[in-house]
Design brief:
single chain; 194 residues; alpha/beta; UDP N-Acetylglucosamine Acyltransferase, domain 1; five-stranded parallel sheet; 15 strands; globular
Length: 194
């Protein structure tokens, strides 16, 4: 995918996920979550080469300073990823995030081990993670699932589930809430699932 195609996809994703977004220019200039994603892409490319890993960490820390979002350069992030509001989001080194994932402010995709192993979550395609949620350890959040605001999740979550509470309790999504977000008119607030 070309640079301009990816930029267009990012701007469209932001506008589709945020009903407050008015213009591409406004989104490009003012959306810290989008800036964090762009800086992560640069740091992730640098991370792929041993000789530029120090530079990758520096770029990620500059991104943290500028946006309030900390994404380790080793994290693997899919297409059409969106961070709404951004501030306080932390994504660890071995996190894997699928396509069409949305995180709200204060989300942590963190580790539970100090060993140099896969220690951060794998988040499937089409997952929404509500504000303040903590998803911890080498666990999997199944595709099409939603994590409620302030939930603490330390166990695998099946596809098409909703997880809420501390500790997170899982239940299946009802059929009327399984449709993916396709445009602002069909936006569903994650708080509806709590």
């Amino acid at each position: 995918m070309s640079f301009l195609s990816r930029l267009r996809e990012d701007l469209d994703t932001a506008r589709n996920h945020d009903p407050a977004a008015r213009t591409d220019l406004e989104v490009a200039l003012n959306y810290s979550g989008l800036h964090a994603i762009w800086l992560h892409r640069l740091s992730h490319r640098l991370w792929d080469h041993d000789r530029t890993r120090g530079a990758a960490r520096t770029v990620s820390q500059v991104g943290r300073f500028l946006t309030g979002v900390e994404i380790h350069p080793g994290a693997q992030i899919g297409k059409r990823f969106f961070i709404d509001h951004g501030m306080g989001v932390v994504i660890g080194e071995t996190a894997e995030i699928g396509d069409d994932v949305m995180l709200y402010q204060g989300v942590t995709l963190g580790g539970t081990s100090l060993a140099k192993v896969k220690r951060h979550p794998t988040v499937g395609n089409g997952v929404t993670v509500g504000a303040g949620a903590k998803v911890l350890g080498d666990i999997e959040i199944g595709a099409g699932s939603a994590v409620g605001a302030n939930a603490v999740v330390v166990k695998d979550v099946p596809d098409d589930s909703v997880v809420t509470g501390i500790p997170g309790k899982v239940r299946p999504r009802t059929p009327d809430k399984q449709e993916p977000l396709v445009d602002p008119a069909s936006y569903i607030d994650p708080a509806m699932w709590i």
